TrEMBL record:
Protein name: Glycosyltransferase
Listed SUPFAM superfamilies: UDP-Glycosyltransferase/glycogen phosphorylase (SSF53756)
Domain of life the protein comes from: Bacteria
Native source species: Pediococcus pentosaceus
Top enzyme category: transferase
Residue ranges of domain Glycosyl transferase family in the record: 183-320
Record-annotated Glycosyltransferase subfamily 4-like N-terminal domain positions: 67-170
Single Gene Ontology MF annotation: glycosyltransferase activity
Alphabetic keyword roster: Glycosyltransferase, Transferase
Length: 354
């Protein structure tokens, strides 16, 4: 049996990467015959342990204190931790989401005379979170979570044969969420970090909502700069149409009916919130940020707008309200992302790391 060690840095416990790793281990545990032995090593630990508590084969090295203290602990302890864990577990394959970790693993391969392969599993767009060239040279293979990231890696000089397009896994959901009734109305939700500007680009969403020609409501779920967001929606005089709920661990249980999930990001790796929504039968409206949405969205599950045009977002929101009856076939919406479901993903993932 092949030993696969996945090494990750500190994680909050609330992000998409945590969900991906959890889904990978859950799918592996469902298999009656395991051809690979997965081991998760968390160097730094977590803020919330919900994502990691059910992972069976793991080792957690918890760092304490704030961001600055954790950074100091990494500088002092990470090289030693990496050396001794690789020596202890003697893996056939090492996978990491963190460039420093996979670079150290690649470096120790020579020192330990290891025969293992090092896989980079980077979860961000290289355009918006670029990697130094040294990190691109210190991995044997690359796991790309979207077609856009694969294109970026090729543009950086990585041979296409060394890049495996694996996407990210989503669990099949039994539950469904239907559309609201009524014409010329739309109920929307935003799920993610609350950022008026920057990556999440929620200012554009607010500006668009002031211009739509239909009646609308928006539910906002997440943490972040809530007060700045509140001030802006008050300034735009639309605060009565928006409810801010904060972070919810099981956000989908909050919805009785929903017409669309909206994503206005300037960049993503692979926006899992879109897949989560579609797996519940909810259509989506998303920006055409460089990596992610074009792999997910098609005519059966949503609309893509031009990130550079708030007017195009207004058009899509109006169109979604007018055509929400076109998105009433819940099973068709769910099946539109079949390549992302964990059973399909898992088989593809295994083929990619053999």
């Amino acid at each position: 049996m092949k030993n696969v060690m996945i090494i990750v840095p500190y994680m909050s416990g609330y992000g998409g990467t945590e969900t991906v790793i959890k889904n990978l281990f859950m799918e592996n545990s469902r298999k009656k015959q395991n051809i690979m032995n997965f081991k998760l090593v968390s160097v730094g630990g977590y803020r919330d342990n919900n994502w990691i508590s059910d992972i069976p084969n793991k080792e957690i090295i918890q760092f304490y204190g704030g961001k600055k203290l954790r950074k100091l602990q990494y500088m002092v302890f990470l090289p030693f931790i990496m050396f001794f864990k690789i020596k202890k577990y003697n893996p056939d394959t090492i996978i990491s989401t963190n460039p420093i970790i996979w670079t150290l693993a690649f470096f120790y391969k020579k020192i330990l005379k290891g025969k293992y392969q090092v896989f980079s599993w980077y979860h961000y767009s290289l355009k918006d979170k670029p990697l130094k060239s040294i990190f691109l040279k210190k991995a044997d293979k690359f796991l790309a979570i979207s077609s856009g990231i694969k294109r970026q890696l090729i543009a950086k000089g990585i041979p296409e044969d060394n890049i495996k397009l694996v996407y990210n896994p989503i669990l099949r959901k039994k539950g469904t969420i239907e559309r609201t009734e009524g014409k010329n109305t739309i109920k929307l939700a935003y799920i993610g970090r609350i950022m008026l500007d920057g990556q999440k680009n929620m200012r554009q969403l607010v500006d668009a909502l002031t211009q739509v020609s239909v009646d609308w409501k928006l539910d906002v779920y997440g943490e972040g700069d809530i007060e700045l967001f509140r001030k802006y929606i008050s300034k735009k005089k639309i605060n009565k149409n928006i409810q801010i709920h904060g972070f919810k661990k099981n956000v989908w249980s909050e919805f009785k009916k929903m017409d669309a999930i909206v994503l206005t990001s300037k960049y993503e790796g692979l926006p899992m919130v879109l897949n989560e929504a579609i797996s519940m039968g909810i259509p989506v409206v998303s920006s055409n940020c460089e990596t992610g949405p074009d792999d997910i969205i098609n005519r059966n599950n949503g609309l893509i707008y031009n990130l550079e045009s708030t007017a195009d977002l207004v058009r899509c929101l109006n169109l979604m309200a007018l055509k929400k009856n076109n998105f009433k076939n819940i099973m068709q919406i769910k099946e539109s992302i079949n390549k992302f479901y964990s059973d399909v993903f898992f088989n593809n993932f295994l083929r990619s790391i053999r």
